[in-house]
Amino acid sequence: ASDKKLIGKVPVPSANAPVLLNFNENSLGMSPKATKAIQAALPETFRYPDAARGEVIATLAKVNGVKPDMVSLGNGSSECIQATVHAFGGPNVQLVVPDPTFDSAEVYAKSIGMKVTKVRLNAAHQLDIPAMKKAVEAFPGKSLVYLCNPNNPTATITPDSEIAPWINSAPASVTFLFDEAYHEYVTDPRYQSAVKWVQAGKPNVIVARTFSKIHALAGLRIGYTLAAPATTARLNEFCSIDNTNIAAAVAANASLQDTAFIQRSLQATALARQITTKALDELGLEYLPSQANFMLHRVKGSSAAYREEMKKRHMMVGRPFDHYDGWNRLTLGTPGEMTAFVAVLKDMRRQGLV
Ligand code: PLP
User: 164 partner at 20 to 30 Å CA-CA among 84, 314, 338, 349?
Assistant: First the structure.
């Protein structure tokens, strides 16, 4: 599609219709095929969702080169993360997480009394694998390691060359949860999905993915894990029965097969990123290399003051993160939304605010 067509409508932010660039949603909206699938399934929603769940599990297995008994669905990948922590964690198990990262593994671990060890990102704002490995080796009990790749809030990837030697040599007492929520956006060839270890039958590797990002189904709540059959069976024991509703399941199944939509979604985000980085370059504001549908960039002064100024202009931008005051996490909305964002950002520069 041409850039002009992709840019689409440039919104005029207002109190009633702020531009929402704060939750890493996909404001392109879902695939038209997903919408149609929901409409067609609606009359059948008096039934339990087993058939629809079975279909999306079969498609996920096919697309990812695994068997259906290696796929577990969640009410969003958040439920998959919760199930993993509850199934493989416990009061005597340590959770090792990057710092900062998406914090739901930590939240679920704390709720069951787990020790949480936070490991700062390295100088390249990537996961510090040697330091995470050290934290595991220093702990006398079992560890569950959460590896968010690409990481949130930095949108950076951690290269396979850094991760692979650890996964290949770690004892089975270490469980690895890879959160690949933004997997589909990655273009950096140094990244590799951890699915290869699942395909190879490694029982201690779990990969969580979501339909909330590239597939734009955040409000319908559907995510999944890929893991060895016995690992998946264990995860299922910690998920609520029939956790995926029919609308989410049929929409996900249709979206997975709508390659044209996925391409359009990727193109829109790439253009949104280009519009944003061009402006940040012009304004001399540093940013990290984004491999996701959001990016972390420098602001002038504190992040909180910047967010307030943006909010006054009806632009909702990302939240605070430890160690990154003076930065803001910005969701890449539609190219039109980012055009509106850039106008506000440049206006704030004229006022000396950024
Ligand atoms: N994992 C990461 C890294 C995320 O950024 C998010 C949401 O922003 C999630 C998981 C949760 O997504 P959901 O529960 O919608 O699948």
Answer: 84
